[in-house]
Amino acid sequence: MSDDWEWDETLFAGSAAHYSVGRMPYPTALAAAVRDELGLDGTGRLLDVGCGPGSLTLLLAPLFESTVGVDPDAGMLAEAARRAEEAGREDVEWRRHRAEELPDDLGRFKVVAFAQSFHWMDRLRVARRVRGLLDPAGFWIHVGATTHRGAEDAAALPHPAPPWDRISALVAAYLGPVRRAGRGFLPGGTAGGEEAVMREAGYTKVTRLQVDDGRVFDRDADAIVSAVFSLSGSAPHLFAERLPAFEIELRDLLAEASPGGRFAEREVSTGVVVWRP
To answer: Which end of the chain is more exposed for a tag (fewer CB within 10 A), N or C?
Structure first.
């Protein structure tokens, strides 16, 4: 990640509504794998940091007595609240905070989760702050996944795979060759080296889980368009007045790739790394 990049509130502006349409769900086996590994019994509290529209929050919430989802994006929290109401989950509280500024009144938690979010943060600062929010026997879990697109799979699929290379080229033609992120750019991509950060913050790795239901998803053009707009590097606001023209070109590209309008993708295996202070 570039040293001069700074988070800003436009990072995912306009993307939240596209998650339900464009993002594939986490594996159904993920909740059971986390439950069994951590010995969860329905007690204790969960904190999901950088919860976005609540995809992981709502999957794991049934494993706890109560749950808090935290995100700095108001649109994401509104979408999370909508999805929670739709799912009949009244035991989840949604709070608008940056991870670097988690308040003391959140209380203590048995599990603090991060999913596709930690790389956007001042990671060392956040890791140290979370230590003060964990129960003495609590766990930090980091869920690493790719949900906007499927695995690069040579196996036969019932429909064509989305032409992701051509989609990326189209995005670059509109937004430039350097990845966009909010008002800034990420020429080197997002940050790596999570393990070194966690160890410096005083955590010990417990284990790593790999979860894969092996599902194949049938997706239409609307789903692929929303998948593109759900990404920080192609969030709707980045296209400004060229957004309608971009979407027309994107849909034309998809129609060429699959005249029947259907696509298929196999889910990507999801990794879960478990840490303890």
So the answer is: N
3-state SS assignment for residue 141: strand
266 Cβ partners below 8 Å, 6+ apart?
150, 151, 153, 155, 157, 214, 215, 216, 217
Q: How far is CA 233 from CA 13, 80, 101, 187, in A?
A: 11, 21, 25, 11
Model pTM above 0.85:
yes
Task: Write the burial class of residue 178 (CB in 10 Å: 0-12 exposed, 13-18 middle, 19+ buried).
Answer: middle
Average pLDDT over every residue of 30-40? 97
CA distance 258 to 252: 10
pLDDT for 4 beyond 70: no
Tell me which residue has tokens 């035991």. Answer: 91
258-276: pLDDT as tens digits: 999 999 999 999 999 999 9
pLDDT in tens, 197-232: 999 999 999 999 999 888 999 999 999 999 999 999
Cα–Cα distance, 186 to 5 (Å, whole number): 7
* Continuous H helices in 202-242: 221-229
CA 126 vs. chain centroid, Å, equals: 17
Q: Quote the distance between the C-alpha of residue 264 and its chain's center.
A: 21
Sorted by sequence, the CB contacts under 8 Å of residue 130 that are 6+ apart come out as 49, 102, 112, 140
92: left (phi over 0), alpha (psi -120 to 50) or beta: beta
Q: Which residues contact 255 (CB under 8 A, 6 or more apart)?
A: 221, 261
What does residue 236 show for φ and ψ, rounded to 5 degrees? -55, -40
